Amino acid sequence: MKVIFKSLLVLFSCLFWLNIFSQKINGEIFITLSNRSEIWLKPKIDTLDNKKEYEFKIRVAPEYKISQFLFEKGLAIQNDSVLVIIPNSTKYGEVDTATLRVIVTSIGGSRIMLFQKRFIIKVPEKMFPLISNPKNNLIKVNDKVLMERNKPYPKDLFMNNATMSMYDNELTMKPLKVTNVTISLMEREGKQYISSGDTLSDEAVRELKKIRNPIPVYIKVDGTNGKSKKSVWNRVIVYAE
Q1: Domain 28-122 has CATH 1.25.40.10
Q2: Which of 123, 187, 204, 210 would be 183's cystine partner, CB 3.0–4.6 Å?
Q3: Looking at the predicted structure, is the pLDDT value of residue 6 above 80?
């Protein structure tokens, strides 16, 4: 009975400390891991690069064993005497900190020790994936709405001194100087309304105002980039809301 009672006492004690550990309460109950005879961790580095894998040799004195790890911002995995740490912080472009906490128990189970080591994490700026096949010669209305072939657009979008802008591609988004905008309505075959500059002509706006039912409209934008010239035709559907 005494043996069973002692085992249960040790078990409840371990569960109590594991519960404290898992909730990451007051770090002051943990002992700094440096320069201890019960446990050591090598190499002795304090700064980690975010999302990079690090291998540490970790050992405890013969009378102890490691019960549990917790690395608060990332992953910590033990394989025999090797501890793998992979920091994962979301503080992009900043320097962050993360603490490794370790529960060590005596072989007999009568003693529990809590250790911690704080690391500095260098987190680079967030990287965005490159566009593998960027679209070229982008056209925007009022520098906000991207114009795409055969897509529907309300006629009100082209009212009130609407302007057209042109960009070389969606990767660099380098603007080109718009020199002319040409509007051609399908119902006015052969009739074109040309502006000088990036603003739709008054004649083009008057014709677009007359639209009641959805109709195809051809829009040509001429632009220059230095000495080079570009012309882009778009066929869109314009409708009345």
Answers
A1: no
A2: 204
A3: no
pLDDT at 47: 94
Q: Which long-range contacts (CB under 8 A, 24 or more apart) does 140-149 make?
A: 140/164, 140/165, 140/166, 140/167, 147/219, 147/234, 147/236, 148/234, 148/236, 149/234, 149/235, 149/236
Exposed / middle / buried, residue 81 (Cβ in 10 Å: 0-12, 13-18, 19+): exposed
Query: Tell me, what amino acid is at 60?
Result: V
The predicted structure's pLDDT at residue 8: 46
Mean pLDDT, the chain, as a whole number? Answer: 83
End-to-end CA distance of the chain: 85
Which listed CATH number (1.10.3470, 3.90.550, 1.10.10, 2.60.40) goes with 136-239? 2.60.40
Q: Residue 68's pLDDT is what?
A: 84
